[in-house]
Amino acid sequence: MPCNLRRMCATAMALCAAGIARAGIAQWDFEGTLEASSASAALVLDAAAPASAADLSFTIAQIAGQDAGVAHFSRGTYLILSHGFAPNGGGRYLNQYSLIMDVMFPNRAPSGGWAALLQTDPANASDGEWFINPAGGVGISGNYGGSVPDGQWHRLALAVDLVAGTFTSYVDGVRVQQNTGQTPDGRFAADAAMLLFADENGENAEGYVSSVQVRDTALGDADIAALGAVSAGGIPQAAAPPPAPAGLWEFGDAANLTAATIGRDLALAGTHMAIEGVVPEEGAARIGAGSHYRCTHDLPPGEYPLVNRYAFLIDFRVPTLGPWYCFFQTDQSNLNDGDCFVRADGAVGVAATGYSAARIVAGGAWYRLCVSVDNPGGVYELFLDGERVLKGTPQAVNGRFALGPDVLFFADENGEDGPIDVSTIAVYDRPLAAAEALRLGGPGAFDPANRAPSVISAAAGPDRIVTQETHEFTFGAIDEDGDRVQLRIDWGDGIVAPWSPFQDAAEPLVLGHTYNRIGYLTIRAQVRDEHGATSPWTFIQYVRVAGDVFLAFATPPYLQNVRPDGITVMWELDGYTDCAIAYGTDGAYDLSAAAAAQSTSAISYVYRAALAGLQPDTLYNYRVAGADIVAVEGLFRTAPANAAAFSFAVWADSQGTNHGTYLADPYEPTKAMFLHMADAGVDFAIGAGDMAESGADYTGVHAYYLDRIVPALGPAVPWFVAWGNHDGGRTAVIRKFADHPSGERKGFDPGWGSFSFDYAQCHFVCIDYDTDTTDILNWLEDDLQAAVDRRVRFTFVFVHVPPYCEIWIDGDAWLRTVLVPLLVRYGVDACFSGHTHEYERGFLDGTYYCVTGGGSWLDFPEPYTVDWPHMTVGGFHSLGDGIDKGLVNEYVQVVVDGDVAECRMQAFYPDGAWRGTLDTFTINRCDNGNGPADDLNGNGVSDSCEAGSQRPGDCNQDAKLDISDVVCLLGFLFAHQPAALPCGDGTPADTANIALASANGDMRIDIADAIYLLQHLFAHGPPHALGTTCVPIPGCPAACGP
Fold first, then answer.
1. Do 897 and 952 reside in the same domain of the chain?
2. Which region among 220-224, 391-395, 482-486, 548-552 has the lowest average model confidence (pLDDT)?
3. Are 280 and 377 part of one and the same domain?
4. Is there a single domain that holds both residue 410 and residue 421?
5. Among 500, 519, 546, where does a domain finish?
6. Do residues 251 and 368 both lie within one domain?
7. Domain for residue 862, yes or no?
8. For the domain that residue 521 is a member of, what is the CATH number?
9. Strand residue runs (E) in 547-601
10. Which domain holds residue 420?
11. CA pair distance 844, 823, nearest whole angstrom
12. Cys bridge to 554: 94, 572, 622, 923, which one at CB 3.0-4.6 A?
């Protein structure tokens, strides 16, 4: 049979060249037909709502710059795929399989943003199993990840292993989400036919498909990565070889350590010595402190004067954490700071691009670092042992991260270059994709023909054990090349054993383990050979653990979402048990509430208990208790219902260590700052974003956020967070530790989305970086208007990125265009931000702008930008005492008393010692030039500050609120006595009368308001919506003291 289809030929030729026949693969490539490219049945068309009939046509599309044959299908059209595979995984259905597809969806809006990808119900009578959600994420059951924007081609992959209980999604070779705990022959098991792009209730979309592949195995991360990103050639059936370097140095010749395997020899500056490599017979070099290699790389610059697209691979080992270690320096003379480091806490990166999570590097272990740079494409990524650990801040073309003729490895100009071991350096003439970095695996000698080893998936030990008993488990591996291997084990209880020493693949690995967590747990294993090729995680067995477990608080109780009538108490345990909270006043515990638990990962559970029906401004005691835990007691005070004096703290960017400014404790002065807030007696605190280096990293979230704030504030001081860019998206683990009013907004979560709240008749608005565009455009103005209608005393806004800034960035132009006019119009008194790690403030059009980003490390190397005339403290203006550019650790304490809010910047030395109050600014709400929304009569004075006022509900105008006012209101409503209300035109439609008489705040005057006042006066019901004190009401006479 002649071969006339390009992709079918390419696939067949690849398989022939490999000398293998790949069983268990079915493929369709849409070159003008629905026939399979493999020995499988043709696809069959069908349709579901909103389509009345299937509509599919073939055309040519550009994919990755090349023409490809594709199929276009209408919304509602779907494909019936008969894969021809036998049931597996010990069940009646296909329990282990992979589905890969190259797709593009031009417009998902008609379905509300949804696009169905897979339906396992052959009748399409239930919800689909795999979707793109409205945010562009891929997944199911509320767990979505990655980004698949409309109009872009992507290679999507789904690996289902119901024996291991996993459902894993990938975008262009990179894992973006995983669900666990799935069961064989359950919802995600596939029948003989799968439905592509089908859903039973219209969550489907018009689209294009170029290639579809199904396998009867669940591919691992490395296997999916090997398939690469979307391409015009379709989905490969054989893994692509690792990328070839343009330069390679392997340090195997002890007499000539700088010799090149590919390219020019390195030039040594300083000292080095030969040592053993990743395995003893491999060579490596130890390059001393203050020493480096000069590498003339010969990479072509392309269309630019400098090399802007490249990648480095470095196999390295550091002796210990504490010192800094530098990987490379782009400055030809080593006169500037290095460009990528191992920080003192084991994070990798540099301030300009950002850092990975802490402690991803440990002393004494070998790692493979891949640095991938595409300055024109806006890409800066770091990979460690094949896994992406940083998607960094993009860098400028021909800027700091562009290469001249040479690059200096391990060089730094000011001593941040501790001694480091290196066994391999490779240079690439293009950036590496995530899938390519994954294929390169871990550290080891280069061997392009090397094949990855595999784990023997078989029971390794007993399947029923008791806690506190140590049992042995035996693991095995296969390596077809005869390489030595090392294994690591995920025990299923949150503990992952480190890589074992290298040994012969035929030799079993015996390990003992003691469980301290009960349940039905999954054991997995991974194997890596001496060349760094790594297997996917492989299911080994289930183990049922029984017995008594004494659980510990991973995070002690802390307070969230304080209100006049409620509060939320949260805590974290290192295992699951039933918990409850008892609470009351004056030492009693006569009230109780249940606590809901949410898993953070395999190692802990976060509990939240929402307490409601509380009295305002009241001190309560509480006790957290449960099976298998020691009870913990605490106190909290609810918020005042009316205007009262109070104080709060504002801080930002407490995301990391101090970057070496105080080596004795890298977590200072942040710890001291939180303690100072508590000692100052603040009633609550607000963080303006970036609470951890990565909100998705559980370890970093604890080290930088929970372990510092909870011991200081948790016992007594609630806090809120206006999330920042480092805090991550909706599924980031840090958001599971929050309970914010965002959970009351439809479509949002307690830890995701912007929100607002009132405290003592002041209004607070927290903007979430992850949802800021939608929230500012569609939600914020209504929220601010409602605050004006309630006649709040002050309005404070918290947004992570500042509208105005003078260091590193000039602020944010979009916020200046869209947000700032709202702040002016609605009389926002202050806007607090972070993002830049320094302190600045200024005043413009009635609003104070304050950058309070001194929560951890400071932006010492960042340049000045714009000298904004209204920013008068910090930035271009020295704070004195040698503090330039606002570079000081600090937070802001705001003291509100009556109509005045005094803001005090509290500064700290790097060791945590208090440095003093270095800046103070005072907001007087009646002299602050509040915006037109609070000046309806146009006289230039805020309506809520004008002389003459009313006691809310005072119908008979005697300056008191009592039963006679209820009689007055009922008389007006039902007997026309009095004939008119006291304000405006006297009618119940007048806005002034509505403000005075609508006690329940529903903006109507009726009998419900009389009942509401009676309940307040005689049954301890809530007060009038405007409170109980005199307030100015425009259009009303002065019937109450000013």
1. no
2. 548-552
3. yes
4. yes
5. 546
6. yes
7. yes
8. 2.60.40.10
9. 553-563, 566-573, 579-584, 591-594, 596-599
10. 247-440
11. 10
12. 572
Q: What is the pLDDT of residue 11?
A: 31
In a domain, residue 8? The reply is no
Strand-strand pairing, 830-833 and 795-799: parallel
- Give the mean model confidence (pLDDT) for residues 226-236: 87
45-61 average pLDDT score: 93
**3-state SS, residue 773:** helix
pLDDT band at 152 (very low <50, low <70, confident <90, very high): very high
The C-alpha atoms of residue 835 and residue 837 are separated, in whole angstroms, by 6
Classify residue 118: in a domain, yes or no. yes
- Reading the block at residue 460, the tokens are 């390794």
Is residue 1031 within 8 A of residue 939, CB to CB? The reply is no
Torsion of CA 519, 459, 600, 435, to 10 degrees: -170
The span from the first CA to the last CA of the chain, in angstroms, equals 97
Instruction: Give helix 813-825 / helix 780-789 axis angle, nearest 10°.
Output: 20
Interval 172-208: pLDDT, tens = 998 999 998 889 999 999 998 999 999 999 999 999 9
C-beta separation of 505 from 477 below 8 A? yes
CATH at 68: 2.60.120.200
Beta bridge partners, 58, equal 71
903 part of a folded domain: yes
**1009 sits in which H/E element:** helix 1007-1018
- Residues 494 and 601: their CA atoms lie apart, in Å, by 8
Q: Mean pLDDT across the stretch 70-88?
A: 92
Q: What is the pLDDT of residues 662-693, one digit of tens each?
A: 888 889 999 999 999 999 999 999 999 999 98
The string of DSSP codes covering 352-373 is: TTEE--TTSS-TT--EEEEEEE
Residue 879 CA to residue 903 CA, distance in Å, equals: 16
CA atoms within 13 A on the CB side of 817: 5
With CA atoms as reference, report the closest residue to 131 among 227, 185, 196: 196
Q: What's the token pair of residue 327?
A: 């990987």
Evaluate if residue 1041 carries a pLDDT over 60. Answer: no
At residue 405, what are phi and psi to the nearest 5 degrees? Answer: -60, -30
Asked if residues 515 and 548 have their Cβ atoms less than 8 Å apart, the reply is no
Same domain, 981 and 1002: yes
Indicate which CATH number applies to the domain containing 716.
3.60.21.10
CA distance 820 to 840: 17
Q: Which amino acid would we find at residue 733?
A: V
Q: What is the pLDDT of residues 390-440, one digit of tens each?
A: 989 899 999 999 999 999 999 999 888 999 999 999 999 999 877 678 778
Beta bridge partners of 924: 900
* Sign of CA pseudo-dihedral 166, 169, 174, 176: negative
Last residue of a domain, one of 641, 675, 695: 641
The Cα diameter of the chain in Å comes to 109
Reading phi first (left if > 0) and then psi (alpha if -120 to 50, else beta), residue 987 is in beta
Rounded to the nearest 5°, which phi and psi values hold at 568?
-115, 130
Same domain assignment for residues 770 and 852: yes
Residues 577 and 709 in one domain: no
Question: What's the pLDDT tens digit per position in 466-522?
Answer: 988 999 999 999 998 999 999 999 998 878 888 999 999 999 999 999 998 787 888
Same domain, yes or no: 826 and 957: no
* Helix ranges, 915-1006 (H): 963-975, 991-997
CA dihedral 829, 835, 841, 844 (to 10 degrees): -50
- DSSP H helical ranges for 870-962: none
Total domains, the chain: 6
**DSSP string over 811-823:** B-HHHHHHHHHHH
Nearest alpha-carbon partner for 758 in 1025, 1004, 1034? 1025
